[in-house]
Amino acid sequence: xxxxxxxxxxxxVNGVSFALERGRIHGLIGPNGSxxxxxxxxxxxxxxxxxxxxxxxxxxIEGLKPWQIARRGVGRTFQVIRVFPELTALENLLVVTTGPxxxxxxxxxxxxxxxxxxxxxxxxxxxxxxxxxxxxxFVRMLMRDPLLILLDEPxxxxxxxxxxxxxxxxxxxxxxxxxxxxxxxxMKVVMGLCxxxxxxxxxxxxxxxxxxxxxxxxxxxxxxxxx
Amino acid sequence: MNVVITPAMVGQVIISGLLxxxxxxxxxxxxxxxxxxxxxxNVAHGPLLMLGAYTTFFxxxxxxxxxxxxxxxxxLVLFGVGVLLERTLVFRVIDAPELSSxxxxxxxxxxxxxxxxxxxxxxxxxxxxxxxxxxxxxFAFSKPRVIAFVFAAGLxxxxxxxxxxxxxGKAIRATSQSREVAMVxxxxxxxxxxxTFGLASALAAAGGALIAVIVAIQxxxxxxxxxxxxxxxxxxxxxxxxxxxxxxxxxxLVEQLASLFxxxxxxxxxxxxxxxxxxxxxxxxxLGGRQT
Amino acid sequence: MKRLxxxxxxxxxxxxxxxYPMVGSGxxxxxxxxxxxxxxxxxxxxxxxxxxGYVSFGHVAFxxxxxxxxxxxxxxxxxxxxxxxxxxxxxxxLLALGIGVPCLRLKGPYFAIAMLGLNExxxxxxxxxxxxxxxxxxxxxxxxxxxxxxYYAMGLTAVGVTVAxxxxxxxxxxxxxxxxxxxxxxxEAMGIPTFRHKLLAFLLSAIGPGIAGALTxxxxxxxxxxxxxxxxxxxxxxxxTLFGGKGTVWGPVLGAAVxxxxxxxxWARYPYVHPLLFGAIIVAVVLAMPRGVxxxxxxxxxxxxxx
Lengths: 227, 292, 307
Prior knowledge:
The complex is a heterotrimer of chains A (about 230), B (about 290) and C (about 300).
Chain A: E1 25-29, H1 36-43, E2 55-56, E3 59-60, H2 66-72, E4 74-76, H3 89-94, H4 101-114, H5 130-142, E5 148-152, H6 160-175, E6 179-183, H7 187-193, E7 196-201, E8 204-209, H8 211-215, H9 218-225
Parallel strand pairs in A: 1-6, 1-7, 4-5, 5-6
Antiparallel strand pairs in A: 2-3, 7-8
Chain B: H1 7-38, H2 45-63, H3 70-88, H4 98-120, E1 133-136, E2 139-142, H5 143-165, H6 167-177, H7 179-184, H8 189-214, H9 222-236, H10 241-261, H11 267-281
Helix pairs in contact in B: 1-5, 1-6, 1-8, 1-9, 1-10, 2-3, 2-4, 2-8, 2-9, 3-8, 5-6, 5-8, 6-8, 9-10, 9-11, 10-11
Chain C: H1 4-23, H2 26-52, H3 60-77, H4 81-103, H5 108-128, H6 130-133, E1 139-140, H7 147-169, H8 172-189, H9 194-220, E2 222-223, H10 225-228, H11 231-244, H12 251-265, H13 273-288, H14 292-300
Antiparallel strand pairs in C: 1-2
């Protein structure tokens, strides 16, 4: 897997370029407004790039429609939960795939039990708790068996137990060969989970490396705490 | 089809186009304001214009009030109606899915049109006050249209000055930029919504009052104005207030230009083709809209 | 027994409706024919607007397009009316594709208002091309008493639309249409090609009204721009669907039956009041009961999607 990305122009994200390695968990951090979510939207096609490109498995995917990118194997969650509230938890997962109905149903139920929600499969997603909705969104993304998983603040607003389950799940996905890129504000999560961390500030990449090195990087400290 | 087009005809088209275009701009500015501030397409905008037209008609017929003097009265009346509608119904769907606000204002629009039919009958009515044209050289200037132009230009300019320079106007613009920020800055967003809806209805009412002197009115006249106003804000870029000005002029010109080749019966078709073309070529409008 | 119950009811209802024209009065037959028409129209509106949330304010355009297509084919080219009815459905479907391609690319309000204009445009075009359509004078079809066969054809159309809705709503295609209503951006990001889905739903939603318009043209024997493009027809199908429950299978059927009867029994005495009440019902349903009667029952008692 090789994701490569440049941006031109003076925009939220400016000339950021980085590569993701298959089977690793990458963290994307930076102060508020540094362009993290914009970057996610560019990768998934929700926002157009002004310049530059995004490569997935050696093919350029920028300029494709969001649904095409999703079908190429990019799955994501959103910072603000975006489940389909008037669909049940099960239906939220079912809509994502195309194959035969029975296979899809079995897969969806399996994923729901993966996050211990099998008992709530027929509940409207809008009636679930915040944490449960977050889990539904998480497994919904897995229905397409994505190569690259983008998580936008998975830890926000989630209690400890749930968070640990979620982080476990992310590790298992990594072990299964998935590539993960996550935006997160909780530094404990980032430091404990990620193998490589990218730091954005004002739309530019200011650092890249293993968590330990990042923590002591002067530019990073400066970006977060000011001079 | 053999059409010989002379420079004089083109001049006449430009004159007529601009005369009606400013009227479109003014009415559409109301729709654009509501869309900008409340993120709602008010389907009842045209029917509110119709109520403005009837207000002027009855003031003229019953009380003998000069229709041009009644423009501010109609505006005031419809300002009240707008505020009332916002306060009782529309505010409930501001954060709801757009399906709700579209259907709600559609329901209001039907109720208004049919209430008008019950109260005023479907008869065509006209305010016979001013007819004929001023002729300058080769060009004819329809009198009621020229006066409508003057009023519309003045009111539109006043609306822009209000938005640009007054405290309330700035509050409206701030709310349309970001409701959260406006709220944090101590702006009473609910009051701004009522004010916006009232102002927009007043602009529609002014349009209706001026139209009543130009053509005959009837309760169903409004729908097409909702459509044309929407077309104007699409042309100019939804949520972009100066864009509404440009869009109105453009619609006026295109309609008049088309009337050189086609019967006026087809003016709505021309407007529609224009809408479809713009949507195909430049979905954000000519001046670019704000993305949500 | 549990599965047989509803089926038995359905069989009885269908049989009763099938023999009705032979035993019922002419007025009764016409009334049921009207209910069939409203079921077909409301059910079709529900397919695009109830499921995807893209509100069509001009759905009567398809009804009118079907009516004129059939009228011209029957009066001008001597087609038999069943064939002309199919052609009416086809013409409406093609019109939906033509309008849908530019207008469904955009978010809801654009589509809604574009549809509001479409009706006016078609009316103007029909009036303009007098040679073909008879313009404002209207178009007379050869005399033929076809009320009973049209009754069956309209009934078939209503059944067809309802069965289509049942199949769509219980399928993943239907659920995907609902994701467009719920959160179109998320749907795209999950790999759902929303544009194609909307276009297909829109196409399907146009065919029923096209056929219904064609059948109505045959039944009435005379069409004119004002009679086949009334905004009131769009309003009525919207009210019926909203009242019964948008996005449900049986909501439009319930809405059509209840509101038609109410219209005949109560409101017929106060002719101008009922459109006013329709406006009020829309406002009331949107504010107080956004899911309609069946939608409310569905969420309250956890009924399956297939009601």
